[in-house]
Design brief:
The chain has 190 residues and is an all-alpha fold. The chain has one domain: TorD-like, CATH 1.10.3480.10. It starts with a helix and ends with a helix.
Length: 190
């Protein structure tokens, strides 16, 4: 695995963490729209082209409403983006406890100013980013972390996002996530 490939993967995780943690502003949509896709014929290149087009054509108000409906809602959004929920049907279950154990091994803890449990999809994507750019060999490898904390549920979540009809930007983002995590699952198979 080349350093350039690892950096690209880390940046993709960073983008996913940002887009799945809060609604994008116009500047972020403009930045995504301006991404130059260097391998448009590859499976991920095709997904990047779709995502850049979706960002370019997105109406910021529609994207904002879409994020609110998908992830916030009145009591909860249409999607509940937590590992525990996707694996057990309930929040704050054993998958979260196991995640907290691995995060403690890595010296990571939930930030005081956040109310989200650590098994939110955006938080886990951010940890993957950190593991990929970490110097040396981490106590918990990216492969082990992915297999234990993402592989059991992430493709189902991404498929649910891709199947949502709330906002075309999030449908495309779901397809992008699905392709990326499918590639990651093969790459990080233990």
């Amino acid at each position: 695995m080349s350093d350039e490939n690892t950096l690209w993967r880390a940046q993709t995780y960073a983008l996913l963490a940002r887009l799945l943690s809060s609604e994008p502003d116009q500047a972020l949509l403009d930045n995504i729209a301006a991404v130059e896709v260097t391998e448009p014929e590859s499976p991920m290149g095709q997904q990047w082209l779709k995502l850049t087009r979706a960002a370019k054509n997105a109406d910021i108000n529609n994207v904002s409403e879409g994020f609110q409906r998908l992830f916030i809602g009145v009591t909860h959004g249409e999607l509940i983006p937590y590992g525990s929920y996707y694996q057990t049907g309930f929040l704050m279950e054993e998958p979260l406890a196991e995640l907290r154990t691995d995060l403690a091994k890595l010296g990571l803890e939930r930030q005081k100013n956040t109310s989200e449990p650590e098994d939110h999809i955006a938080a886990i994507c951010d940890v993957m980013r950190l593991l990929l750019i970490a110097e040396g060999t981490p106590i918990v490898t990216p492969e082990a972390f992915y297999q234990h904390h993402l592989a059991p549920w992430v493709e189902t979540f991404c498929n649910d996002l891709a199947m949502s009809d709330v906002c075309s930007f999030y449908t495309v983002l779901g397809e992008f996530c699905l392709k990326f995590t499918s590639l990651e699952s093969r790459l990080l198979a233990v």
